[in-house]
Amino acid sequence: MISALTRLADWSARTPKRLWAIAFALFFTLAASWSAATPLGGSPDEHAHFIRAAAVARGQIGGTEVMVPHMVAGIEGKFAETGVRLPEWYKPLPKQHECYAWHEDRPASCAPAIGHSEKTVQVTTAAGRYHPAYYLVTGWPSLLVDGPKGLYLMRLMSAALCSALLASAVVTAAEWRRRSVALLGVFTAATPMALYMAGMVNPSGGEIAAGILVWTALLSILMSPDPRLLNRRLARVGIGGLVLINIRPLGLIWFSGAVFFGLLLAHRGVLRSVLRRKALWVWTALLGLATAGALLWARAHPDNSVINTPKTLTAKEAARQTFGNTETYVHQMLGYFGWLDTPAPAFTWLVWLGVIAVVTGLALALAYGRGREALALVGMLVAIVVVPVAAQASQAEQLGMVWQGRYLLPFAVGLPLMAVLICASRAPGQGFPWRRLVGFGVAGLALAHAAAFFWALRRFAVGVNGPWIPFSAHWAPPGGWVPWTALYTVAAFALVLPALVRDREPVAVEDPARRDGDGVPRTGRHSKVPAIG
Predict the structure, then answer these.
(1) What share of the chain is helix, strand, coil (3-state, %, to 5)?
(2) Which of 65, 136, 218, 348 fits a 20 to 30 Å CA distance from 189?
(3) Is beta strand 528-530 parallel, antiparallel or unpaired with respect to 75-87?
(4) Residue-wise burial string across 422-451, b where 16 or more C-beta atoms lie within 10 A, e elsewhere
(5) Distance from C-alpha of 221 to C-alpha of 211, rounded to nearest angstrom
(6) If you write DSSP's letter for every residue of 419-452 in order, what string do you get?
C-alpha cells in the first residue's frame, strides 16, 4: 500500500507542470468547497467586498464619500464609506448576515432571500478605499450573472487566484532535494483559515496565499541555491510580491518582513550571486513601481471615519488588551469562521499547533550553534506576539480594537516555512524517520482540515446547539451538505499524496557565486559544491 502511494506521489511530481496542475486542482477544490458551504455574506465584511468588486467591474474605481453610522468592536462611530451605483438587489447585502452572525445557536436559514431587481440605486461599501486590482480579478462575473449565482462565481474567482499562488508554492517546495520535508511547510502554512478566506470575496485570501508563495520562493533562493532555478524563483517572489503589495498597504510590511528574515537565513555567497542576476533588478523595479502606486493610492484615499473611542482606551491599555488576546489571535489564524463567531474544533487547533511545535522544536535543535537560524526562529515567534501589540496600540485611539488574527497571517506563515526548510537543509540524511514524520504530519493536518470544515458547515446548517449530524438541516449549501463534506475530505487527504514523494538524489551543482549576471559559468576553473536542501 505504502509503496503504491509512493509511486503515485512520484508520478504526480514527475514534472513541475503536472505537480502544479494537481496542486491547483486540490487547493481549488478545498477553497471552492468553502465558497459553497458558507452562506453568502457569511464571512467578515464580505458584503462590502461584493459591492466593491461589482462596482470596479463596472468601471467605478472611486465614488462619493458617505458617512454611515456603525458599531466597531462595541464602539459607536461613523464609517466613511463609498457610494456607488449598482442594481438594487445589492443594497440589502450588508444586512444579509445579521440574523445569525454572532448568534451561534441560529442556523443561516433565517437570512432573507437575495433579490434580482436591476433598478440602479446608490449602494455604499466600506471597501471603497481599497486598491482596485483584486476587485478587477474577482468582480467581472457580476457582469455576466446576477443574484446569488453571480456572487458564487465571484467567490470562485478568488478561489482560483489563491489556488494558483498556493500551487506555485508547492512546486517551489518540491524543487528542494528533501522535497517531502519542504512540502510539509507549505501544507502547514495553508491553515483552514487561509483556505476559508481563499474561498471568500475578501482581500485577505489573496494576501495570505501570496504571503505563502513569497516566503517559500524567497527562502528557496537563499537557503537552497540552484542557478538553474533562480530566474523562475525570482519570478515567483515577484508575482507573489505584486499581489501582496497591491492588495493592502500592510502587504508592503509583510513583504519587507519576509525579506528581513530570509536574509538572516541566507547561505554564504548566495546573496552575491543573486545580486548579479538581471532578473532580480527587473522584478525589483516592478515591485518598486507597485509600491509607489499602492502608497499613492492609499494617500489619495484616506480613511475619514470617526470612531468615538473612550478616553480610557489609551495606547497602553490597547497594548495590554492586545497582548492578552494573543491566544485568540493564534486561534483566528488557524480557524475562526463566519463573522469570527465559529471557532474550529479544539482537535483542529491541537493538531496544527502540535505539528508547528514539533517542526519548530526540531529546527531549533538543528540550528543550535548556528546563531542566525536560531535568532530568526526566536525572532519570528516574538514578532507574532509583538506586531499586533504595536499595531493596535498605535491605532486604537483612532480606530478602536479592530485587530484580527488573519491580518497577521501573510507574515506568520513564515514560521512553519522557516522551521521546515531549516530541517530540510540541515537534517542528517540518516538517523531520523523524516518521511514518516511528514506522512503522519500531513495526514493529521488533512483530518484537522476535514474536522474544521464539517464543524463550520454544521454551525450554519443547524447552529452550534443542533444535532451533531445535521440530517435535518435548516440551511444547506447548493447541492446539500453531504457532497461538499465528502468532496472536501477527499481533497484534504489527497494533499497527503505529494508529501509522500521520494527525495531527490543529491547532485553536484556549480557554485552560484562563480556565475555571471545571466547565470552563465565564468571562464576558467569552476568549483563544484553538493546540492543543498
Answers:
(1) 65, 10, 30
(2) 136
(3) unpaired
(4) bbbbbbeeeeeebbebbbebbbbbbbbbbb
(5) 15
(6) HHHHHHHHS-SSSS-HHHHHHHHHHHHHHHHHHH
- Rg of the chain taking only CA atoms, in angstroms: 23
Strand, helix or coil for residue 530:
strand
Distances 515 to 219, 225, 510, 525, 529 between C-alpha atoms, Å: 20, 12, 8, 11, 13
User: Rounded to two decimals, what is the model's pTM?
Assistant: 0.92
Tell the residue number behind the cell numbers 474567482, with chain if given.
157
Three-class HEC string of 288-357: HHHHHHHHHHHHHCCCCCEECCCCCCCHHHHHHHHHHCHHHHHHHHHHEECCCCEECCHHHHHHHHHHHH
Extract the C-alpha cell encoding 531.
546540492
> What is the tens place of the pLDDT at every residue in 483-519?
999 999 999 999 888 888 877 766 554 444 444 443 4
pLDDT in tens, 146-197: 889 999 999 999 999 999 999 999 999 999 988 888 999 999 999 999 999 9
> What's the sign of the alpha-carbon dihedral 214, 219, 224, 230?
positive
The single-letter code of the amino acid at 279 is A
The three-state secondary structure class of 83 is strand
CA torsion sign, 41 to 42 to 46 to 50? Answer: negative
Specify the pairing of strand 342-343 against strand 508-510: unpaired
- Distance, CA of 395 to CA of 415 (rounded, Å): 26
Give pLDDT tens digits for 294-306: 999 888 888 887 7
Neighbouring C-beta atoms of residue 517, cutoff 10 Å: 13
* Strand residue runs (E) in 73-119: 75-87
| CA gap 391, 289 in Å, rounded | 26
The CA-atom distances, in angstroms, between 171 and each of 26, 95, 179, 213, 323 are 13, 41, 10, 10, 37
Query: Could you identify the residue written with the cell 509583510?
Result: 254
Amino acid at 286: L
Size of the chain, expressed as the number of residues it contains: 533
Instruction: Please state, in angstroms and rounded to a whole number, the distance separating the CA atoms of residues 506 and 177.
Output: 7
From the list 394, 131, 104, the residue with the least C-alpha distance to 244 is: 131
- Which CB contacts under 8 angstroms, 24+ apart, belong to 15-21? 16/171, 16/174, 16/175, 19/170, 19/171, 19/174, 19/498, 20/167, 20/168, 20/170, 20/171, 21/167
Question: Which grid coordinates are listed for 286?
Answer: 516592478
Determine contact, residues 88/81, Cβ cutoff 8 Å.
no
Distance between CA atoms of residues 507 and 75, nearest Å? 61
Contact 244, 210 (CB under 8 A): yes
